[in-house]
Design goal:
This protein has six helices and seven strands. The strands form three sheets. It has a three-stranded antiparallel beta sheet with strand order 1-4-7, with no helix packed on it. A two-stranded antiparallel ribbon has the order 2-3. By secondary structure, the protein is α+β, with helices and mostly antiparallel strands. Strand 5, helix 6 and strand 6 (248-249) form a beta-alpha-beta unit.
Length: 256
Amino acid sequence: MFHLNQIKGLILVCISSTLFAQETRMVTIEEGSFVPLYGATKKQPIKIASFSLDVYPVTNAQYLVFIKQNKTYSRSKIKGLFADKSYLNHWAAEDDYGSQNKSNAPVTNISWFAAKKYCECQGKRLPTMDEWEYVAMADQNRSDARTKESFNKYILTWYEKPKTYLNPVGKTFKNFWGVYDMHGLVWEWTSDFNSIFLSGESRKDKATDKNLFCGSGSVNATDLMNYAAFMRYAFRGSLKANYTTKNLGFRCAKDF
């Protein structure tokens, strides 16, 4: 049972987090449906409700503001349960991303826990994997460009390029929804990043929730020819929630 003072403290934390939220550009992603790479054996489309998504990934400068307001997520104070030893290890110091890292480059070496906390402090959340893939399948002109050979070649070519995470946000193409950097900059966390590896007949099976951040079973692909997307699912499936890596960042989403 919480004491009254503890409850008041929790309320104040939530209120202060919202007050310190940073203004970022977001766009509306209209509702729709698509058949994802993974899931049940039948190629059934899934529905995506309308939501808002950040135009760009979160940057070093934005994350530094968050760190200054949430000291428990600084490099020296974050618990090992929530981030491994590589957390922000490319920054020059706890409160300084350094001259080697651009202020408008995407923040990386961030764990799922830290990304989730950042979004919550903005009054937002991490996008689901289905939402992220729904937006990511768009090129400049089409909401679903997955069948375009040139589109997949672009993504696969990026996978082979080194150190793209050092580039500033907004330098890749603006897609159909008005979102930048879904491909060509960094990999990105999603709220349910490796849920495709759950066992059971359905990803939504509550009995398998405990496996969400461990990974069990295997991918049941609906389109193995889409190798570019399959690589993303395989990468996500290798992660655990406290992992950090230099080419993994995030952006936030919001419900209407």
